[in-house]
Design a protein that fits this description.
Largest sheet: 6 strands, parallel
Distance between the termini: 42 Å
Strand content: 15-25%
Order of helices and strands: EHEHEHEEHEHEHEHEHEHHHEEEEE
Radius of gyration: 20 Å
Helix content: 25-40%
Number of helices: 11
Amino acid sequence: MNTPPASPSGAERTDGSFVRLGALVPLTRPGWVEAGRHLLAGLDLAVREVNEAGGIDGRPLELVVRDTAADPERAVAAVDELAGLGVAAVAGEYHSVVARAAAARADALGVPFLCSSAVLDALTEEPTEWVARLAPAQSHGWRIYADFLLGAGRRRIAVATQPSVYWASGTRVLRDHLAPRGGTVVELDTNALTPEALCDALVDHGATALLLLVGHPEPAVPIVRAVRGDRRLAQILIGAPAGQPECAEWAAALGEDGAGIPFLRYLPERLGPLGERVGKELRERLGEAPSFVAFEGWDTVAVLAAVLRSHGTDRAAIAESWPRVGVEGTRGPIQFSRTPGISVWQWAWPPVQVVDRDPVEPDRVRILHAGSSR
């Protein structure tokens, strides 16, 4: 497997002087590279800050990075390798299907895994003590998105889909939440429909909203262009609950057509002092506004550093510590609990917003709807 070097926070060493953390990050296609770059920026910044503050009982923290490229098999191989390298825990990953494969392998090997950014409810098939998660479960965030649709008067929902456990799960969440409230969901297979044919189907179904449950940039970008260019669909709402418009490459690819598309992000309405400070550092590193994924990365290391300081580097002790975590993160106090329907230790819940980019000023993000934390 091709693996990049460790992150800039330090070269890999084998002399035992470092406390090592494994990091799974999508850094090459077909992974969402920009999300991976933001996740790694957050992870790496936090590692540097931990080390500047004296490390873990005087031992520097080292981040050993492996590129998953959105490939579950590659993630499994990376977990095997990282376990052999003696990491205290594995962290990261953005893509849900990849994180699920990594979580299953970490569980089997007895390696603690703190998932930063993947939301699929069924992160593991059975309940496990080895895995915890910072991102909200898909069923929580997407129900908030469904409430936004209802509040906006959008009840005839079409979803442009591709075959995927993640997209199928999202469709099910939307349908289960909308149906009792007078909403309908029709699925449009983008593997069978061209963007132009999809526009025809939207007209035929009388859809009032189209949700992009597809990959980025293909086929999401061509679909947006086609819908924006079809006068018959001038009043339809295009939405992207998975958060594709969060990153700058969305705006670069679509320009004005990419604005006014509501998406989910996991930030509070206002960051506190810690979030403001970290956000400023991340902006300097990235050369652009940090996405919520970058904050998830920083929070991941903050949690693991606190656990390592209080419980040591023994893997079983780390896994046993999840229910006792109490850490001030960039987006609020972080604690883990057992949540109904979720098989891993879960932060219930990070802040959830439905936002879009202002069509008049695309660099400005508008908050359209906010979910409750409980």
